[in-house]
């Protein structure tokens, strides 16, 4: 019987042997495969490793075993044949798919803020609903509110899947699902390789109450970052003492009129912070250690330079990290964003060190100047991280002042009146922009107050526009003239600056100012500064002597003495006090206002009030006298009244200080193209003899005119593009009322700055081409307005404008010499 069984089932044994051979070959070529895939789930564990031949036995039990074995073997062979058939069909389908490949594109869908990662996980789990239409889903760490999908083919199941997610933003019931432009797809996929922020990196806060402060990343979350910010303290000396002082706690970081900074003595910092009873705060390198998180020491090598530190090419000492006394000395060669390159002494070569490991070197007797511009004096003693200065206080007494070594800068000699650099009037008053600087001052606007000769080269002392209390000593190579866009050294050597204001020891002479905050006939009057008197008993301690521009014979006095706090300059757009408009030099320190007046930031408050109430200051003018007075001879006039030409319009002096550029008498009868409430229109002005006012009319067609009452909101059409080569009218300045034609333009360094135009003065003609007078002006685009020129006039003057443009390149090799100060005018 055993022989019959063996002959009967020998073919199955041979087939199983072939199957095992195929398994071994496939394991050798493609790796080991699990045999459980070829067996049933309910198969016993003894057969999971493969097919085992049992020894032949006799009896009924042996017959049952053989039958069971043959049954399992038959099922195994049938399953193997079925798998081979399925693999054959799969190969044919993949071959056909390669023939008709799908177009793969990148799409993105809009989601709620902070839900990018959650949405990626949800879409990945539900990706099987769409089949093989979506191949990849990802989110970019630096692009919020968008999740990207690599789609092989669009299908309705994709839209159904997106709408089912609650994190997706919908519009009219449909998901905001858009295709990424083809030119941006490659850049988007490359962004996956960019390195994002990590824990331990140092960053600078851009917005909020800690704007500009540095911090270390403590944690990264979907909603944002958890940052450890470096604490800053307030010097209580610079806070104005008032009755409301008790409302401000000592923990306040940004108090009114304060100058926050980092460094200070141990007692000073502890007095400000006032730690708890069980808290033992300590000082490390001038910083108060509040939270010594382990991430801060780990990220010290990536820390940028503090705002209070300034490193230049000077001698420094490098501290060792191990804490030993084997310190190295050298000279700084390069200052980078996160380290400095120091050339060590004794031939040790060039090495890179972080900022916190570098300390400046000073000797007793060196004259230093604080970077913040508050203190300067001689060094009395030096410690590890601090120096004690001998300075002169506000009351004239000598006092000691302690500060950090890295917060002061060494000067070659004391700045006094005999210093040629400090009294060089060529540099004073130039408005500059800080460029190519390696710290937070890059891009800031400032004004040059004086020059000083340091140990290495000439330095410029500048005052920032938004923080006039702080002075900075910078290299002139890092300063760019705001007017010409050239380097400061190039501007002083090449461009001749004429009529510098405040030359000599008397400041602000010849500056146009307006009187505000004072009741009486002098309110809103405009005049010129003739003299400044110090040591007065008023609030600021200064008085300004003025000569009014508009001579009024009804007023007996020719000169008026006004308090300093009631005077604002009108040359610029800011309407600020005289000291903020033109900072004083060292030789003019006697004309400084009282110290408490400066510390209380009264000048900044006056500037902000004047900026918000600019229109109120211009409109609140005293009404003209009802009775007409006989004309009198102005003693400032070079000729008697009988020799002067008589004006056609009566009482022209009332229009000298017009409240708006539209009411200027020089623009009477001109047709100007303006914009009112965002709509272009044509405007003309006419003098009404009965009301003695200038009326503004708007044209609607050829004959329809309408009185325009709200002309304060009218804006002129300025030449903002190079295509504007039409006829224009000067509306502001000393040349107001002149008709000009554009020649060429010169853009500023900053795109927000106005364009300077070189224009030619012309005399219009009705039936012929305009006549060129030969006078050329360099005017800002904000002082020009488009004239409503007829089509025939444009046709006649087409050749004229073309000729002026053709002649421009012949003389354009030299930049137009724009005036250093724009011509003063009463109102803007």
UniProtKB/TrEMBL annotation:
Organism name: Armillaria novae-zelandiae
- Identification of the protein by name: Uncharacterized protein
Output the superkingdom of the source species. Answer: Eukaryota
High-level lineage: Eukaryota, Fungi, Dikarya, Basidiomycota, Agaricomycotina
> Which stretches are tagged as biased composition: Polar residues?
811-828
Q: Where is this region: Disordered?
A: 19-44, 796-828
